[in-house]
Amino acid sequence: MGDQDLSDTLSDQGYQLTGRHSAVKLCYWTRESLTRGRDCYKGRFYGIESHRCLQMSPAIDACNLHCRFCWRNQGWEHDGVMPEYDDPELLLDRSIGAQQRILSGFKGDPEVELARWEESQSPRHIAISLTGEPTLYPKMNRFLELCHARGITTFLVTNGTNPDALRALDPLPTQLYVSVTAPNREVFRRLTLPAYDDAWERLLESLAIVRDLPTRRVVRHTLVRGWNLGWADAYAELDGRARPDFIEAKGYVYMGKSRMRLGRDHVPVHEEIRAFAEKLSDRTGYPMLDESPDSKVVLLGRTSEGRFLPGSKAALRAESVAA
Asked: What distance in Å separates the CA atoms of residue 257 and residue 260, rounded to the nearest whole number?
């Protein structure tokens, strides 16, 4: 796919391109927060304000996995660092500008409070995820530094197959998500279709690195019925390598281009996710702190050492469990 074809495809899908390999896209929950006052599960669990959350990627055309459950287009991306990369200062300014443009039309919506819309024009949280593998962006440290200097918290989501980048993170993001989407090497190979033969070993290495990072750390299990849902003992062993502050068990959502690779029968219901989370809780010793049936996600967490955002539901629940 040529550059213009890629640009047209991404624009048609609602992406605002902010550079050679970077983009912003309005999150469903940002819209819900503005129009209905409903925050996403990250707001419920960790205390972020969804209407002030900016969802972006510094690596729209770089990923080393081709996960069957991924909602994005595949087949055109690179599996390594892009040859020319966007300046982090420009990337941050353009990302905020793109978010402001996307939300400009909400100002006159009668369902949106003006004060809430005005707050949305100054993002206070950036989710560095969306599409691609963000740790392949070679200027991530500077980008995080700029965000934090502006009082913007950061969630960095990684597939864990770039351990050298995790070692090099300085400063650390406010929250580091590592996706662990398979219980063993064979399921990982069949479900994520990695570009590297040693991708599973790289993930195991990353989990060991994550264990000692002094920031809030989350291991997320995206669960697909018939593919990787189950194996609670194996997942618990992997979680034990990282000893994260939180574990999220989250059901696969049938959306985007994943519908070309998976069927509706692969979508678990929340009761299945909760049953899995209960087994995982028993095996890890992490109590279940909260859940969001709308997003089919259950939160497990450590009550004594977990790093919470003040006032979050997870913090209140952890205090209750510990008491």
From this structure: 6
